[in-house]
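Workshop exercise sheet. Pairs work together: one partner reads the sequence aloud, the other fills in the structure field after running the prediction. Swap roles for the next sheet.
Pair: D.N. / O.F.
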Amino acid sequence: MSVVPAGVLPGGALPAAEDAGDAAELGPRARLWPSLAAVYRAQLSRARVARIPLLFVATFQSVGIMILMRGVVDGGGEARSVVAGASVLVVAFVALNLLAQYFGQLRAGGGLDHYATLPVPPAAVVLGAAGAYASFTVPGTFATAVFGSVLFGLPMTHLWVLAAVIPLAGAALAGLGAALGLLAPRPELATLLGQLGMSAALLLGVLPPERLPTVVRYARDLLPSTYGVEAFARAFDARPDWALVVGDLAVCAGVGVASLALATWAYRRAAVR
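Structure field:
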């Protein structure tokens, strides 16, 4: 058997190898918004199975708290705080508690490896999952607000403010929940941190601030959902101070951007490990 040099073959073997190397060049990464929409639809379909139990538990919890508080609070500013806090608590239950559990289990089960192989920006994964989970809170939040308004005799003229409160408070809490789940070394710890965060939203958001000690009020100011609660509570006034409402929503939006940026950094950190 004779050996023929590669250079005398038709076309040459070495140039063909070089051409194959050139053809293996990767394409550009997907853009943020199309990737975000794709992840959102996928997560929405995944979470749709648990939609009814999710809505029932989150709404029933907030409604039960308002019924218990009805025996303590008669009306006025305290009633507005209770209804606003219970309504935002529906968002906290899903965006903070359940999202922390989801990302904690995703990290422990190797699910992040799947997303790491996709040509999508990390921000699209975090925002898509957060948006899908927060979407399920809309019916429960409105139902809680309507029930609370009837229970305490509050006007429902400005319930439309929830259309701004839900996405802004949801973004702030979802970013925090995702960061807790991604930074926790074990899924059990992520579940614990998510439940502690929801308990803080319950105690510091539903209880009227006038009845809280001064030190606890400072802690309440550090909670991202507080500003969504304050904005919604002001909307129950006969003549709301819209400048203060917009200011509270702006703070909530700023915290949301910061918490989602933290969650994106935590996702990059967890995906490379």
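Discussion prompt: Confidence is low (pLDDT under 50) at residues 6-24. What would you look at next?
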